[in-house]
Sequence to fold (545 residues):
Amino acid sequence: MRVQEKIIEGLLWLSAAITILITLSIIWVLLSESVKFFSEVSILRFLTEKEWTPLFAEKKFGIMPLVAGTFLTTAIAIAVALPIGLTIAIYLNEYAHARFKTFVKPLLEVLATIPTVVYGFFALTVVTPFLQSFIPGLAGFNALSAGIVMGIMIIPMISSLSEDAISAVPRSLREAAYGMGSTRLQTAFGVMVPAASSGILVSVILAISRAVGETMLVAIAAGQQPRLTLNPLVPIETITTYIVQVSLGDVPHGSLEYRTIFAAGMTLFVFTFLLNNLSFWIKKKYQEKYD
Amino acid sequence: MTKRQSKLEAINLDAYYGDFQALKNINIAMEEKAVTAFIGPSGCGKSTFLRTFNRMNDYIDGFRTEGQILLDGRDIYATDVRVDELRKEVGMVFQKPNPFPKTIFENVVYGLKIQGIKDKKTLQETCEKSLQQAALWNEVKDKLDKSALALSGGQQQRLCIARALAIQPSVILMDEPASALDPISTAKIEELIYELKKDYTIVIVTHNMQQAGRVSDHTAFFYMGELVEYAKTKTMFTSPKDTRTQNYITGRFG
Fold:
């Protein structure tokens, strides 16, 4: 009996250990290849050069155009998803009937199960032509429609997590607000949203982190032209798209061009790692307030 | 002695949660500037009844009432009554202290701010006056900008009372306001109720028989959704008419 216990305990330990090991080895691969890259291209060049042309004859290694592209699509996505997602969360919590809520919330989460490649095609073949009908200067590939569709894609993340945060606010606070003669709107914005603000912030950060890492959608709809710009109407390239471009191309293994994707991947990893830790920290710091 | 005008009145009031009838044909009239206590075992409907006076039950799915509740002679369930306006007239203090996660000052002036009052002087004056009325001013006057959540439970409850007073209601509903507090804080709340009845009509739900005896002028005993007996507190506690009342106040059940 005791031997059996030991075996089960060992198996449990092993599965935990494997997960951690895989994460560590991914970081190791990223790090070691990046180190090789940075031994040839200085970090200063990497951060300050204004062009990213590692695949051209005249090579430039400035990551900023890719960062700008990523930032642009992410910012547009959040600008779409935050107001809509938060409105949905407030509506479901303060206005909708309980039965309606149990019906609609899972339905919204279906949005998150649509493959991102489908979103990409939706952006490219539906949203872009539609936008072109009243924005004449809009290119076929652009950050605007990719960002908008990405925003639609991450709405459920914000609405669902924010809704959880708002409904976790004690009922007694809502009663206090109503008892003072607040209207539903005053209760929602004056009491519930501020009380749930840390949870809402966490949902936004996780959504940003998702948008920064999103690949297929931007690869299809936003173009592949690294450009240091904040103009949403022209083709750009995000960090993730660049990695796809090189991975699918015929760049020889072990070459400097090949290693650029690890440097780009490292940049991406640093961003999402920081964002996830920030959300974790906010959660930990502010959550205990009502428990 | 002439009969004083009744401030709150229920006429043939029935209340339902879905199919369950929580209140059965309640008729009661409560005096102005007096304390009325609702007593009775758990589930007897006293809290439900209290919450009909500011329509706090409106948010519960399937809750409905029949009959009338009159505030100063006006039916508060009439279609032209705005609940947010009603609740400025009928304030409420809850069982568990529930200050907002804001500063002490912001808590007290919350009701004024949602009415659009921004004048700093008005806000400050109301804040001081309300805190003084709630016997909390001396304890918090130096830390008005500190979080209300840092106060003790008893202080938080008095803050909630100050918050309710700030919008100058005429009626204050109290739903077991001291049940979550220690004996000293409870005594302070009871003293406060005694002071407040000079200016306000107070209705208090309590599980504590001694408390009902100490603070109230009139007592209503509820049992299984019915109003069994309603009389002057002294009369009820010395010579109850109904055997159920007698059994309850002597501690034979409940």
Observations:
- The interface with chain B takes residues 97-98, 170, 172-173, 175-183, 186, 190-191, 194-195, 289-290 of chain A (CB under 8 Å).
